[in-house]
What we know:
Blueprint: H1 7-17, E1 22-23, H2 26-33, E2 46-48, H3 53-66, E3 70-73, E4 92-95, E5 102-106, E6 111-115, H4 120-129, E7 132-133, H5 146-151, H6 159-162, H7 165-168, E8 169-175, E9 181-184, H8 198-201, E10 210-217, E11 219-220, E12 224-232, H9 235-249, E13 253-260, H10 261-270, E14 284-292, H11 299-313, E15 318-321, H12 325-336, H13 338-343, E16 348-349, E17 352-354, H14 360-374, E18 379-385, E19 390-396, H15 403-408, H16 410-423, H17 439-445, H18 448-461
Parallel strand pairs: 2-4, 3-4
Antiparallel strand pairs: 1-2, 5-6, 6-10, 7-11, 8-9, 8-10, 12-14, 12-15, 13-14, 13-18, 16-19, 17-19, 18-19
Helix pairs in contact: 1-3, 9-11, 14-16
Family: Belongs to the FAD-binding oxidoreductase/transferase type 4 family.
Domain FAD-binding PCMH-type: 40-221
Cofactor: FAD
Amino acid sequence: MSSPLSHELIESIERLVGPAGLVRDPELMQGYLTDWRNAYQGLAALVVRPASTEALAAVVRLCHDAGVALVPQGGNTGLCGGSIPDASGRQVVLSLSRMKRIREIDLANETITVEAGVILQHLQEAASQAGRLFPLSLGAEGSCTVGGNLATNAGGTAVLRYGNMRELTLGLEVVLPDGRIWNGLRGLRKDNTGYDLKHLFIGSEGTLGIITAAVLKLFPATHSTATAWVALPSAQAAVDLIGHVRSLCADRLTGFEMMSRQSLAFVLEHVAGCSDPLDTPHPWYALIELRDTVPDAPLTQLLESGLSHAFEQGWVIDAVIASSQAQAAALWALREGISEAQNHEGPSLKHDISVPVSRIPEFIERTDRALQQDFPGVRIVSYGHMGDGNLHYNISKPVGHGDAPFKAQERAIMQVIYRMTSAFNGSISAEHGLGQAKPAAAAQFKDPLEIELMRAIKRTLDPAGLMNPGKVFASGLE
């Protein structure tokens, strides 16, 4: 297929980024046009890989003047198709994979300045080598990038203590839709000079501009860890337990993950090397992690004390505390293997929702009941970050049912879950963003005034609608 872009435009872009910055071969382009789950596929006129902010800005200016839509892309590890172009073949994918410099580490200011193409794991390693911690941690950290983490306001397993990307960011550098560069790379913790513009771009999924660099917070490295796998009689017990552990351990509590027996059962069946830490099955589990900056801190004793009280209260049925890093890693593998394991059971209808922590048990009970009433036999895989109310509420088909009939029920199942989420004053997307998967649902379940205000911001910054069109907003709302 011939490119819809003019020969002159392609030549001008190539002069800016060089031959290594241009991907035109259809076969080489495929990795940029399909997400990692093969759930979303698109076409593109061109894939452009600038190596600097200045080159990227010049490409954006050219495309803006030519009326060409742009799709920013980081590690392409998202779950909602936010970095995949549409099927028109007229959009340009802007990959930030070559922009991977760590520009500065300021230990006195406890900050690190990095470009958007830096892989999260490399950022973690750079912080560690400097004797510091960058706490964002998630399953895709070996391939996701800082730009994508910022664009989706990523959370992960340590939000309970450190917050998500919004809380971890002090400043941004952003290329605006017309090619101007906003230099907001200020490592300031206090700046009351008007609107805090960085928060417009964090979580905007590339629809308002392209984040090219960021000043991020660093933290003291942790040197002591205690990890426990805990069996619970109910989801309510998880709420009671986290409140108790929080009051006892304060900010030493870094992680508190909750998962259902169905979640664990899939992992035990499908993930090699995993085994049940406890002798008998239980309805619910929690994975608790404490960390401290002090070497040899008495975290295990603290955890044992907290669990002892929880046993007396009936919040805990059984528990095991890891006695080595290898055992702790094995416990975390049970939590991190859930998404992969569920895929072996056929189509997985994934819902990344959040509700107030106090209402998680009621949400689960009422939503489970509603789904079983309307779709008997569906298997509900509930797990997530208990401390911040983020629940991955995923649905697998009934045993023995075909994929196609189950997939045909996807929208009806989604409606039940999102209606219930709305009834609990929750969010239909806690950490994965909207991408191209959820804009229509957002238009349905968000306050219309919120949508109106978001649309006004979009039109102010991107009046031509060229930045990642079709993402965040339902068709016709841009």
